[in-house]
Structure to design on (249 residues):
C-alpha cells in the first residue's frame, strides 16, 4: 500500500471537498443522535445537542482505531475523551498511542487488567512519568472508553471475517465499550472485485457483505449506505457506515 506523504496530503484535500465533508458530517451527527438516544433512553423529554469536539456531559469517551494522520474524528466528531491509535499517527501528544490495533495479544495483555491499572494509579506521579507509565495511562483511558470508531481503516484493510473478530475482541475485553462506529465503502462498478486498487495505488477491501452475513453474538448493527462521489476516488463510490451496539448478554 502506498500510504506515503503524497497520499496523506491528497487525503487531506479529499476530506475538505464540500460533498465529502457534508456526507461525513451528516453521518457523524447521526451517530451523535443515536448515541445520545441510547444514553438517555427512558428520558424522552431530554434533547441531545450535537456539538463537535470535547463534550464531557453527553459525548462518548472514544478510541479511534487507525486514526491516520488526518485525525478526522478528533476534528469533526464529538467526544468527552479521545485517544487515537495507529502505527503512524504523526503526533507526539498524549491523545495518540502508537500501536497495531490488529494485534490481538495487545488487547489481551496484562496492561489492560484492572489490577495493573489499580497498581499504576496508586504509585504514578504526574510530574514524572516513564514511557511505561504513559502506556498504562493510555490503556486506562481505553479501558474506560465506551465507543470505538474507525473511519475508513478497519473496514478497508482486512476482509469482513477478520474485522468481525477484531470487533468481538474489543467488546469482549473492554466491558465499558458500548458502541462501535466503523466506515467502509464500495465502488458500484467494481462490486465483483475484492480487494480493489484505488487512487495512489492503495489496495483496499470493500464492504460488500450484507448485514446478515456479518451477524455477531456480541453486537447488533445499524447500517447506512450513502453515495459519496469525490475528485480523489471518483463518481461511483458508496460509503458504508456501520453502527455496532453491544448486545445484552
Amino acid at each position: 500500500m502506498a500510504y506515503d506523504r503524497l497520499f496523506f496530503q491528497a487525503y487531506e484535500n479529499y476530506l475538505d471537498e464540500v460533498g465529502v465533508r457534508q456526507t461525513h458530517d451528516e453521518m457523524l451527527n447521526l451517530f451523535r443522535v443515536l448515541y445520545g438516544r441510547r444514553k438517555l433512553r427512558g428520558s424522552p423529554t431530554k434533547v441531545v445537542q450535537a456539538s463537535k469536539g470535547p463534550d464531557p456531559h453527553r459525548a462518548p469517551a472514544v478510541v479511534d482505531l487507525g486514526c491516520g494522520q488526518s485525525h478526522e474524528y478528533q476534528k469533526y466528531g464529538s467526544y468527552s475523551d479521545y485517544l487515537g491509535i495507529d502505527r503512524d499517527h504523526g503526533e507526539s501528544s498524549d491523545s495518540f498511542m502508537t500501536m497495531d490495533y490488529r494485534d490481538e495479544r495487545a488487547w489481551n495483555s496484562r496492561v489492560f487488567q484492572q489490577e495493573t491499572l489499580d497498581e499504576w494509579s496508586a504509585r504514578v506521579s504526574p510530574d514524572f512519568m516513564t514511557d511505561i507509565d504513559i502506556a498504562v495511562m493510555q490503556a486506562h483511558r481505553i479501558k474506560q472508553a465506551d465507543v470505538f470508531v474507525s473511519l475508513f481503516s478497519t473496514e478497508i484493510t482486512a476482509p469482513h471475517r477478520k474485522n468481525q473478530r477484531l470487533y468481538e475482541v474489543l467488546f469482549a475485553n473492554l466491558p465499558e465499550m458500548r458502541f462501535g462506529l466503523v466506515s467502509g465503502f464500495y465502488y458500484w462498478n467494481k462490486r465483483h472485485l475484492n480487494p480493489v486498487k484505488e487512487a495512489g495505488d492503495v489496495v483496499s477491501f470493500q464492504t460488500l457483505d450484507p448485514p446478515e452475513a456479518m451477524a455477531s453474538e456480541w453486537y447488533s448493527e445499524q447500517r447506512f449506505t450513502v453515495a459519496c462521489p469525490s475528485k480523489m476516488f471518483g463518481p461511483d463510490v458508496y460509503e458504508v457506515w456501520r453502527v455496532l451496539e453491544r448486545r445484552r448478554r
